[in-house]
Specification:
The chain is an alpha+beta fold. The chain has two domains: 10-40; 43-139, Immunoglobulin-like. Helix content is 19%, strand content 45%. The radius of gyration is 24 Å and the shape is elongated.
Length: 140
């Protein structure tokens, strides 16, 4: 993007004023973009350490987003889909930082388990929502 610096006076004042206003608008937009970029942070998207755990061992997985705004942490809700509609539940999620939550579960019996949820975060002027579903097995 090129920003003009206007130092000479134009013979056509209306045209000069128009260019001056456009120049100021571009400078303001550039400052806004720079501020938005400064507010971005990066975090690796985590996942389960293993999709299989031994009975008596804790199942742990991290849920996160790769790019997020420092001023707007992600929001994670755990739940399930019932008749194609997301229903939050009371499962506990531990906050690791503004981009990652940790799901912990100590299974009481052998079997296949699943959980899912919704991740929401603000990105510029938009709220982005993503759903996820994870599965793991507990073995002896």
């Amino acid at each position: 993007m090129t920003i003009l610096t206007i130092s000479a006076c134009s013979s056509n004042n209306d045209e000069f004023d128009k260019l001056k206003a456009e120049n100021q608008d571009l400078r303001n937009k550039l400052r806004q973009i720079e501020n938005e970029i400064d507010d971005l942070d990066f975090s690796a998207f985590g996942a389960e350490k293993s999709s299989t755990v031994r009975l008596g061992d804790e199942y742990v997985s991290e849920i996160g987003i790769i790019v997020y705004k420092k001023s707007s942490p992600i929001r994670i809700q755990l739940g399930e889909f019932i008749e194609n509609k997301f229903q939050p539940n009371d499962d506990t999620l531990y906050k690791k930082n503004n981009a990652v939550g940790i799901y912990r579960r100590l299974p009481k019996k052998v079997g296949d388990y699943s959980y899912g949820g919704k991740v929401e975060f603000d990105f510029f002027d938009t709220t982005i929502v993503r759903y996820f579903q994870m599965e793991y097995a507990v073995v002896k």
